[in-house]
Structure formats: structure tokens, C-alpha cells
Task: structure prediction
Amino acid sequence: MSRSKHIFKALDKAYRNALQIESETDDLKWIIFSDHHRGVRDGADDFLACEGTYIKALQYYHQKGYILLLLGDVEEFWENTFRRVLSSYK
Result:
């Protein structure tokens, strides 16, 4: 199977299995973050400088009953392995 067909197949599967939520927009309590670029806590880690503020924001919204949604580029896998990032941000 070609790489593009494999990608399309995986995306189709993700779409079919995606969680669907029906609700009025005004009732939604979501906090949406994207592009964290969490690395391995080194000088190239774009997230490191924001971590304290991010954690405080998460605590605030969690107490208010919000649901966290994370969009693309949460971890920096172009520069680091999954294991290194995961062990750096437990």
C-alpha cells in the first residue's frame, strides 16, 4: 500500500471512530490549546518557558468544569523521540 493510501485509510478510520458531541454552543465548556511544541526541557524546548502559566490556566479551567482539547503539534517529535518527550513531561 502506498504511503498516501495508508495515510488516507488511517484518517478515514479516525473520522469514523471520532467522538461526536451534540450540544448547544453556549453550553460547551472547552478550553482549546494547540502548538505546545513540548520537547525535552532543553534550550530548544518552546513549551518550557510557558509551562508555569499553562499549568495555572489548566488548574483554573479544570476547577470550573472545562474539558481540555489539544490540537496539533503538542509534542515536538521532529526534534525528539516520543520516549524522550514523554519522560520529560509526565
In short: Residues 39 and 67 are 24 Å apart (CA to CA). The chain has three helices and two strands. The first strand starts at residue 30 and ends at 34.
